[in-house]
Design goal:
The protein is of the alpha/beta class. The protein is built from ten helices and 13 strands. Helix 5 runs antiparallel to helix 8. It starts with a strand and ends with a helix. The structure holds zinc ion (ZN).
Length: 316
């Protein structure tokens, strides 16, 4: 049997057919064009799934169901997207509407949850039962897997580790509070810090890399300057790692998972990022070396985690 996984993002709808070995055997995508009504996006999702099944020459009876990873706050039991900033959706009965067009069992969960379960099924946390994955992008998404299952709290809106406070009365966060982990550890936050620092320290290599245009600064420029021991970049990265490290230590103290996974563009830095985080965590986790200390590891499936994880919702 096969399952279909849909990674529904603000930019693209990605659909994959996943086999029993967690391999994606066929893949297709189309732009979400999120300014449209939810109806039109859902119609596109159904058409993409149908045409992919046809293209892969799979008998529709061999598809056991469709899983969807969706950004935002999701009522997974009733299949309703309560709110999604990326899609501009509010109270969309996603499963019911898609089911009118696709007569398969359909499941939905938050995209960060799907990415985490994808890594457990086939990626950097394969066969582990307890992991926490942080996605460091525009925001900080979190997926918590406990005893092999997605932990989303008792009700929608739980398990949002990005919106726990790191600095009381700190930086404004997108959620309306101040000082959330997201406001210090997201890729957006790293760039914000860099802009603030480069404005104050005009001798930084980063200013050279962005050719004087602060709006062009990206995460890679900061790490490139860090590699060249640019003092400003070293300070930015050291601070970034200690903020993220504090957040991860809190997560370990609560969940003590087998592993912490990180994903998002920043993770392309690999061990430049994970080695100092590992050291930070070893130093500050509760109970020190008396307790098991999980490694901080880069997620390995990149963009495919969402599809594999969404398809895996059918097995949960
Ligand atoms: Zn927040």
């Amino acid at each position: 049997m096969y399952r279909v996984g849909i990674d529904l993002g603000g930019t693209n709808i990605k659909v994959g057919i996943v086999d029993e070995n967690q391999k994606i055997i066929a893949i297709a995508s189309s732009p979400t064009m999120g300014k449209r009504s939810a109806n039109e996006v859902i119609k596109d999702m159904a058409n993409l799934v149908k045409s992919l099944i046809k293209k892969a020459e799979i008998n529709s009876n061999d598809i056991s169901g469709v899983g969807i990873g969706c950004p935002g706050t999701i009522d997974t039991i009733n299949g309703i997207v309560l709110y999604s900033n990326n899609l501009n959706w509010e109270d969309v009965p996603l499963i019911d509407e898609l089911h009118e067009l696709l007569q398969y069992p359909i499941r939905v969960s938050n995209d960060a949850n799907c990415a985490a379960i994808g890594e457990v099924k086939a990626g950097a946390a394969k066969d582990l039962k307890n992991i926490v994955m942080l996605t460091l992008g525009t925001g900080v998404g979190s997926g918590i897997i406990l005893d092999g299952k997605i932990f989303e709290g008792g009700h929608p809106g739980g398990a949002e580790l990005g919106h726990t406070i790191l600095v009381k009365d700190g930086r404004e966060c997108t959620c309306g509070r101040k000082g959330c982990l997201e406001a210090y550890a997201s890729a957006t936050a790293l760039i914000q810090t860099t802009k603030e620092m480069v404005r104050k320290h005009k001798n930084s290599l980063i200013l050279k890399f962005c050719k004087g245009d602060l709006e062009k600064i990206d995460g890679k420029m900061v790490f490139d300057a860090f590699e060249q021991e640019d003092e400003v970049a070293v300070k930015i990265i050291d601070d970034y790692i200690s903020y993220l490290g504090e957040g991860i230590v809190d997560i370990i103290n609560v969940f003590r998972p087998d592993r912490i996974l990180l994903s998002g563009g920043i993770c392309n830095q690999g061990k430049t990022l994970t080695n100092p985080l590992d050291a930070y965590v070893k130093k500050y986790c509760f109970a020190g070396e008396k307790a098991m200390i999980p490694n901080v590891t880069k997620a390995s499936l990149l963009n495919n985690a969402g599809i594999i994880g969404a398809a895996a919702l059918l097995e949960m």
